[in-house]
Every structure is written in structure tokens, then in C-alpha cells.
Amino acid sequence: MNTTNNSTEHTVKAFDSDISEMRGLIAEIGGRAEKSISLAMKALADNDYDLAREVVKNDKQIDALEEKIDRMVIQTIALRAPMADDLRELVATLKISGVVERIGDYAKNIAKRVAVIDNNLHIEPASLLPAMAQAASQLVDDALTAYATRDADLADQVCERDRVVDDFYNTIFRSLVTHMVDNPKHIGAGAHFLFIAKNLERIGDHATNVAEMVYFAVTGENIGERERGDNPSDPLYSED
Fold first, then answer.
1. Is 9 a domain residue?
2. Do residues 136 and 202 lie in contact, with contact meaning Cβ atoms separated by under 8 Å?
3. 229 in Cβ contact with 170 (< 8 Å)
4. Is the pLDDT of residue 26 over 50?
5. Burial (CB count <10 Å: 0-12, 13-18, 19+), residue 237
6. Position 148 pLDDT exceeds 90
7. Three-class SS of 176-239
8. What is the pLDDT of residue 227?
9. Which of 83, 118, 160, 191 is 20 to 30 A off residue 51, Cα-Cα?
10. The pLDDT of residue 134 is above 70
11. Rounded to an integer, what distance in angstroms lies between the CA atom of residue 44 and that of residue 10?
């Protein structure tokens, strides 16, 4: 019996098992982040404080999953010493878990605004937020699908379609600022809606980050820097 071959086969099977488990965990953390976006927007639309608190509470589960994924990736790299494609996938998985955790944070931030927004005020530009949230959430879903299926083409499409979310943000930003100038009593609520729009815009950017990592993991190449909607002159601009 060739013990060397048996040992190698065992190592390969163990590594494949680790990769499979990590992909499952990414699917779980991604699913939870997507659900948080949906529930946060529903809480906002329905003025549902209990649902908003649930989103905030459930963010701890997303944090715990990120920590679990990070520990597993680091352990796998240390024990298996992967090379080339395998190493790229592990590094991408490590980074993706952190990005998805941030997406969960943005959803939590939206939920926290529910309690401080007066839904009795009619602020027309805010009516675009659900459509913007749907576009951003779809980017997240497609980026995670690209990861699960190792689909570089889909990852590239996600990066291209981020402009849709950026366009929503720019439209909402301009409309809300104009509305607040014309209706000074709505400045407080308008500011909260601005930050909600910014959180959704950042969710779209983070979905693009996931897609870029997927593209690199699959092809070994960088998609390259693309024009983003972020503008340092935007008072809500953030690199986080």
C-alpha cells in the first residue's frame, strides 16, 4: 500500500470538505444579510419598531458567523498550505465574510432610523427608497450567487450594474435636499432619509466588492478600477 498516496488523498478530501463548509457559511451569512435589508425596509415602510429591533438584534448572528468563517479560513490555510486557485478562494472567502458583515451593519443602521422618523410626514423623494433597496439587494444576491457558482461573468455584471444604485442615490440626494430647502420643518426626517439612502448606496458598493473578489478568485485577474458613485464632495461620503 502506498501510504503517501493515501495521505495525499485524505488531505485533498479534507480540504474539499473545508471549502464546502465555508461556502455553506458564506451562503448563510449572505442570506441573513439580505434578509436584514428586506426586514429593515419593511420596518421603515410599516413604521414597525418591533421589527426594526429584531433586525438590530439579529445582526449579532451575522457577526458570529463572520468570526466563525474567519477562524475556519485561517485554520485551513495554516493546516493545508493551499496554493494558486485554492489559496485565492480562501483569501476571497475571508474578505467576503467581512464585506457581508458590513452589509448587515448597513441594514442595522437603516433599522435604527425607524424609531426616529415621523412617518406622518409626506416626503415624496423618500418614496424611491424601496426601489433603491431592491436594486441594492439584488446586487448582493447576484454577487453571492457568483461566489457560489464561481461565475466570473456574473461577477462582472454585478460591477457594471452598481451604477443603477448610484443613480438612485444621486437622484434621491438631490430631491431630498431640494425638498428640505422648500420645507424646513422636514429637515430632521429628510436627513434620516439621506443617511438611509447612503447606507443603501454603500450596500451596492459592497456587493461590487464581493463581485470583484469573486472575479479574482476565479480568474486570477483584477476587474480593474471602475467609476463609482462616491464623491468626496458629497457630505455623506464615506470610504467604509
1. yes
2. no
3. yes
4. yes
5. exposed
6. yes
7. HHHHHHHCHHHHHHHHHHHHHHHHHHHHHHHHHHHHHHHHHHHHCCCCCCCCCCCCCCCCCCCC
8. 46
9. 191
10. yes
11. 51
What was the pLDDT predicted at 224?
66
Tell me what the mean pLDDT of segment 177-197 comes to.
Answer: 95
pTM above 0.85, yes or no: yes
Count of domains in the chain? 1
The answer to whether residue 230 is domain-embedded is no
CB atoms within 10 A of CB 161: 18
Distance in angstroms (rounded) separating the CA atoms of residues 91 and 212: 13
With contact defined as beta carbons under 8 Å apart, do 110 and 196 qualify? Answer: yes
Q: Is 22 a member of any domain?
A: yes
For 32, the domain range is 3-219
- Residues 70-120: tens digit of each pLDDT: 999 999 888 877 777 888 889 999 999 999 999 999 999 999 999 999 877
Quote the DSSP letter at residue 2. Answer: -
Report the 10 Å Cβ neighbour count for 19.
Answer: 18
The answer to whether the CB of 110 falls within 8 A of the CB of 193 is: no
* Largest distance between two CA atoms of the chain: 84
CATH of the domain at 38: 1.20.58.220
Q: How far apart are CA 133 and CA 44, in angstroms?
A: 12
Exposure class string for 171-202: b at 16+ Cβ within 10 A, else e: ebbebbbebbeeeeebeebbbbbbebbbbbbb
User: What three-state secondary structure class fits 73?
Assistant: helix
